[in-house]
Write a structure and sequence with these properties.
Strand content: 15-25%
Low-confidence stretches: none
CATH architecture of the largest domain: Alpha-Beta Complex
Order of helices and strands: EHEHEHEEHEEEHHEHHHH
CATH topology of the largest domain: Spore Coat Polysaccharide Biosynthesis Protein SpsA, Chain A
Number of domains: 2
Shape: globular
Number of strands: 9
Number of helices: 10
Largest sheet: 9 strands, mixed
CATH class of the largest domain: Alpha Beta
Structural class: alpha/beta
Length: 305
């Protein structure tokens, strides 16, 4: 059996959710894995206290001045040398009992896998909505414009994760950088429709998936997406698939056009927000930035009549 590692990061503000997370860890049907925990300015002692237990973990402490990306890069670079597979989960979310078992099974024939998430509120109560791929969309169709492989619902083979590293220290959208590079390399992707995680919706979420979207959020998210494309393009992969690189370039150009045609034009941004909020929800991550469905708005500034 392949050796498997489970990774999460803990940070100030997550303490109120760690007991739920730890209980979900202890309920796993597959416990044959090694737990790794990155420490983002949180101590081992405070993490254990918040969890209400003492997990048998390899703790990876952050260093002064570390960005969140640097903490993950340090942990993952060690993990790929000692494990065949890596499962990623966020410590503010809740694993269903078969999360690890399902990830292990899916990695038997794939390199990068994701699972559907049930949206829950801050207290963990269901919002009766599921984050998953749109009907008939293959996992490759997510890229390069959006993402469905987050740090809470993804697992990878270590030989692919190794090829996707390093993560730039300044990367904000670490999950998207990682999955985009795997896609560029032609990794075998799979996405399971079965829900294996509860995805907690709270004010600290960087990426909303539920409307309504707001003006300041779209402005900030556009800059995050522009940075994402800058970083991916600044770290070319020698063995990337050429036509996928070309797709990436077109997507990056569209986001730049969106920035100029919508974000810098307040009157157009108002119309764009009205239109994007009328689309179905929940959305794939970052799909509200330069939506191809609303290309007429961010290329002409006009609504279709």
């Amino acid at each position: 059996m392949a050796t498997l590692a489970l990774y999460t990061t803990v940070y100030p503000g997550v303490e109120m959710y760690l007991a739920d997370w730890y209980r979900s860890l202890r309920r796993q049907t597959d416990r044959d894995c090694r737990l790794w925990i990155g420490l983002d300015t949180l101590s081992v002692e405070s993490a254990k206290e918040a969890m209400g237990g003492d997990p048998d973990a390899i703790w990876v402490p952050g260093r002064s001045g570390d960005s969140p990306a640097m903490i993950r890069q340090r942990a993952w670079a060690q993990m790929v040398e000692s494990h065949d597979e890596v499962v990623l989960v966020d410590s503010d979310d809740i694993m269903h009992a078969t999360r690890i078992a399902t990830a292990r099974a899916m990695l038997g024939a794939n390199d990068l896998v994701g699972c559907a998430l049930r949206l829950v509120d801050e207290r963990g109560s269901s919002l009766d909505m599921t984050f998953t791929l749109p009907p008939n969309m293959p996992p490759e169709g997510v890229f390069p414009r959006t993402n469905a492989f987050g740090l809470s619902n993804t697992a990878l083979r270590s030989n692919v994760l190794r090829r996707c590293l390093p993560i730039p220290a300044e990367a904000t959208l670490v999950d998207w950088f990682l999955s985009t590079r795997a896609w560029l390399l032609g990794a075998r992707l799979a996405f399971g429709a079965r829900v294996e995680m509860d995805y907690r919706q709270h004010r600290a979420n960087m990426a909303r998936v539920l409307a309504p979207f707001h003006e300041q959020q779209v402005i900030q998210d556009t800059e995050r997406v522009r940075q994402h494309f800058r970083l991916v393009r600044a770290s070319p992969l020698e063995d990337a698939i050429p036509n996928r690189v070309a797709e990436l370039e077109r997507a990056a150009a569209d986001v730049d056009a969106f920035y100029k045609g919508v974000v810098l034009r307040p009157e157009v941004l108002v119309r764009y927000l009205r239109a994007i909020n009328e689309l179905s929800s929940p959305s794939l991550w970052w799909s509200w930035v330069a939506s191809p469905l609303l290309r007429h708005l961010w290329t002409t500034g006009k609504e279709v009549t």
